[in-house]
């Protein structure tokens, strides 16, 4: 017999009854039933109940072990006594009557429990991540992550893509976040950067004649932690294709992402034919460039009903042609208590409030706005929004450029409070026609709004003749359930157009050559039209696992302060290390 096991803890069934077997694993739960001791023995594959009574040679050994001790147990497979079978366990029809137990690895007192899924402080969980990862839900999430990667690889290869590995030590890149810099020992005073994304390399692969690239790529960004992105590093399904239009990218990638979701949706519906929603429409209808389409609330402009009305606050705003009034319908929200609660929520978000109209029995509008604009206008708003008695509408007004994000938050809040979100489905969509540029208020300049390497719609002519803030790009995102899970674009592969695009954002030609010399040179020697995208592996797995915390789907994540509590990173370098790298620290004064 094998030194440690003849079977795993998830393998035994009724067909093995009567066999002598050997199992090894962790003592998951230990129970004393008055002279009969039970150990639920756990390994990666499952759990098997082992039992010893006072007639068993293993009884004294069973008495000594504690939770999470690693043991080997020999014994005979037998059917569980009548009425004690566990239908929820694959091994639930049998148990092992133990004849021998050997302690392979005793465990100290546990800093957090492994059995059960109770909440525990995150910093303790991260410091003892090796224990945390033994817990069933997290352990399963990690296995799901690996299976999602396998599904992605399989589907990408079926679409004719080939997997490449691009460099980890590279040059600094303007991807929109801070780089992690790596000092060079051989070249004093110079630094490599960890890639924020393999953007330039994957485009260079297209210049090199490779046609369909993909990679499960690690990306590194030195940015502040947030709920939907891990600090430091994340992984993405990175893709690039030659001789393609935007439609070709969509046709290749939509079945891949749909298929991955269907593989792990556990029966939940997944969008088959994805809608394509222009950025401006997404903002206008949903107040988000990553709308949650499970929420059926659609906002509408209702400016005409307030223009020249008795509600002077809105009427005066509308004297400025750039201002508008938007309505957010709230089906079933027509009670004073609910409307007041939404108004208080808006004030908590830094807004002066959230105007509303309620429709009560008989269809009459109620509330301060209804009283000010009168019954005809109130009825017209109700008819436009398709509302009925018992419903409400909430209003935001001003310059849409400044309020659309808040309107989106209000739409989400209403959807949650009124149970208008069908949470048992995955709604996927392409968001298209992103603006090429935006105005940077802080620096008073035009800047790229998304990926600087994207092709402007209209090409070089648009760059030369249009107001930059009106230029749309061949740029697209994938939205799912309120998250951006992918982003991509058709690339600007013409040197003159690339230089002009960066010039509009304040970069001179020499700066373009200095910063993107490799790609700029490659464009001079026959560049194919190309495009691609990158899908966030972490966010996709997070959605499929039904959690809203990326730490629940990652092996060894950092905490919210970007610290690895398990390994003790970041840590101070030794004087010898700093000397070899020609670095002297200049720490901020302690306050």
Automatic annotation (TrEMBL):
Pfam families reported in the protein's UniProt record: GAD (PF02938), tRNA-synt_2 (PF00152), tRNA_anti-codon (PF01336)
Binding positions (L-aspartate): 175, 221, 450, 491
Catalytic activity entry: tRNA(Asx) + L-aspartate + ATP = L-aspartyl-tRNA(Asx) + AMP + diphosphate
InterPro entries in the cross-refs: Aa-tRNA-synt_II, aa-tRNA-synth_II, aa-tRNA-synth_II/BPL/LPL, Asp-tRNA-ligase_1, Asp-tRNA-ligase_1_N, Asp/Asn-tRNA-synth_IIb, AspRS_core, GAD-like_sf
Residue intervals of the Aminoacyl-transfer RNA synthetases class-II family profile domain: 148-557
Predominant place of localization: cytoplasm
Region of interest: Aspartate: 199-202
SUPFAM superfamilies documented for this protein: Class II aaRS and biotin synthetases, GAD domain-like, Nucleic acid-binding proteins
Stated family: Belongs to the class-II aminoacyl-tRNA synthetase family. Type 1 subfamily.
HAMAP family, A to Z: Asp_tRNA_synth_type1
Annotated function: Aspartyl-tRNA synthetase with relaxed tRNA specificity since it is able to aspartylate not only its cognate tRNA(Asp) but also tRNA(Asn). Reaction proceeds in two steps: L-aspartate is first activated by ATP to form Asp-AMP and then transferred to the acceptor end of tRNA(Asp/Asn).
Subunit (UniProt): Homodimer.
The protein's name: Aspartate--tRNA(Asp/Asn) ligase
